[in-house]
Amino acid sequence: MGCASLQRPYPARMADRIRFSLNDRPVELSGVSPMTTLLDWLRDHRGLKGTKEGCAEGDCGACTVVLERADGRREAMNSCIVLLGQVDSQAVRTVEGLLGPGGAPHAVQVAMADSDATQCGFCTPGFVMSAYAFAAGGEKADPETIHDALAGNLCRCTGYRPIVEAMTRVAGLAIEPASPPPRRTAAAVFEENFHAPRTLAELLKLRVERRGAVLLAGATDLGLLASRSRKPPRSVIHVAHVPELTAIAEDKEQITIGAAVTYADAMPVLIAAYPALKTYLARLGSRQIRTLGTIGGNIGTASPIGDMPPVLLALEAKLLLVSTRGARELALDDFFVGYRKTALAADEVIQSLSMPKLWPGEVFFCDKISKRRDQDISTVAAGYRLRIKNGKIEDVRMAFGGMAAIPKRAHHVEALLLKDGLIAASASALPLDFEPIDDWRGTGAYRMKVAANLLRRLAVRIAEPEFPVEVEAL
Ligand SMILES: Cc1cc2nc3c(=O)[nH]c(=O)nc-3n(C[C@H](O)[C@H](O)[C@H](O)COP(=O)(O)OP(=O)(O)OC[C@H]3O[C@@H](n4cnc5c(N)ncnc54)[C@H](O)[C@@H]3O)c2cc1C
Ligand code: FES
Ligand code: FES
Q1: What is the rounded radius of gyration, in angstroms, for the C-alpha atoms of the chain?
Q2: Cα(259) to centroid of ligand 1, in Å?
Q3: Ligand 1 center from residue 359 Cα (angstroms)
Q4: CA of 158, nearest ligand number
Q5: pLDDT of 180 over the 90 cut
Q6: Which of 6-10, 15-19, 138-142, 456-460 has the lowest mean pLDDT?
């Protein structure tokens, strides 16, 4: 049976309207492609030109708008890579929706003006929206938090100092509650090519019936097709409303994260269990990216330089893969089978991933080397889990990204480390595990050197007094 006949069951259904709340007002759309980016719709269809396009690839923050969650949280996101179909059932605020009493400028805008933080008009609306989300979050005005809140907004005129001052002024500002987003309980279909199932059964059925459709989670990878390449996917199945994919579960022994859980939602649980992830995840994209991006998407995209795979390989993650045929568990070790190729069958979906918590005596570290500290994909990334007993390393799992066509365990390095107990010296086995290639991020030789240096850094960390390991000479 050909694909065309498999795709037939849906045309009989009337397309749904895309419904969301924009600046506290309800919006209902039909006749607009759900693959239009939110930014294009705001500017070209709605005439809201305050939100700007800088890079069109999620990097500069000029297009920042705020997602207002049903639980009251405000999260900055990049409207340039968000598809219109994704904002159905959401509440969005743009810079035009910031108003103070009686229509006066909003307190965040006042703080920006009073601090002389309004520089080129191009980036300022994005900074204002990031400041608004930061203020609404009630966060502290410490340099680290402000840096994190601004990492997704680029200013090339070097004017961060007054912006940081404005952020300090608005920290913890009482922000008025937002209107709740419209609720949708049944599956939605926009223009027949954007499916938004509400149950796992619907999702799996669609996966069989719409073989040509791609799974869409946060669109921080796929959205670039619509924004940068101007060639949006022809047909998508949006997984972000399926409860099994958005749940987080935790018991004494393990953590299970739904594949469509965003980084923003997963971070508190992951950092509590594996504290080394705090700095690492803060450098994964920006807040705008982490509002929508998901771990399932990072695994599904199967990039050799994705940040999560090395960490998850070290943590012994297992995936739950589901289809109408049933469910199967697969170790992440067996998921990546070639450059951007995975063991996921055409009718399968990643439902969730589970990782064991650290046992007493186990430690976990991770590291990322990139050309820029923030908002950059890694050149080399690494994750390590070690079990230490009586001053000896008894067990180790380590994995690297950026060193091969797939994110990969370093089996030979692990074996040498267990044999000799020397972390930095075990780097001599790296060439047995990896043959990294040259690309614009770095040469293969550079990557090899970086990986060896990361092992030295691990040795230094392990030598700290909190880890009772016999120290090797470095
Ligand atoms: C500016 C910018 C900065 C970035 N920085 C980083 C970074 O520092 N580190 C990093 O690792 N990445 C980074 N990324 C890439 C991206 O944010 C991540 O890969 C993210 O995790 C993708 O998740 P998503 O939900 O947005 O995926 P999507 O774009 O929705 O999907 C990505 C892929 O995963 C597949 N997929 C999604 N869900 C499932 C599922 N449940 N089952 C099977 N397949 C699925 C999709 O079909 C698609 O092929 C960055 C991207 C941008 C635009
Ligand atoms: S336009 Fe640069 S992040 Fe969207
Ligand atoms: S504010 Fe636009 S470059 Fe600095």
Answers
A1: 23
A2: 11
A3: 30
A4: 3
A5: no
A6: 6-10
Instruction: For residue 294, report the distance from its CA to the centre of ligand 1, in Å.
Output: 6
- Ligand 3 atom, smallest distance to 155 CA: 4
- Structural domain 38-80+91-170, CATH architecture: Orthogonal Bundle (1.10)
Decide if 74 contacts 66 (C-beta within 8 A): yes
SS3 at position 323: strand
pLDDT per position as a tens digit, 359-405: 999 999 999 999 888 888 899 999 999 999 888 899 999 999 999 99
pLDDT of residue 199 exceeding 90: yes
* Alpha-carbon 277 to chain mean position: 13
The pLDDT, as a whole number, for residue 264 is 97
Exposure of 291 by Cβ count < 10 A (0-12 exposed, 13-18 middle, 19+ buried)?
buried
Pocket test residue of 204, 279, 286, 294 for ligand 1, highest count of atoms within 8 A of CB: 294
Domain ranges of the chain: 3-16+184-238, 38-80+91-170, 243-356, 362-462
Binned at pLDDT 50, 70 and 90, residue 465 comes out as low
Report whether pLDDT(5) > 70: no
Q: For ligand 1, say whether the CB of 375 is within 6 Å of any of its atoms.
A: yes
Q: Which of 63, 155, 158, 161 to mutate to test the pocket of ligand 3 (most atoms within 8 A of CB)?
A: 155
Token pair for 414: 């692990």
Among the CATH numbers 3.30.160, 3.30.43, 3.40.30, 2.40.30, which is that of 3-16+184-238? 3.30.43
Predicted confidence at residue 35, as pLDDT, reads 97
Cβ(307) to ligand 1 under 6 A? Answer: yes
Q: Where are the alpha helices (DSSP H) in 140-260?
A: 143-150, 160-170, 200-209, 223-227, 243-246
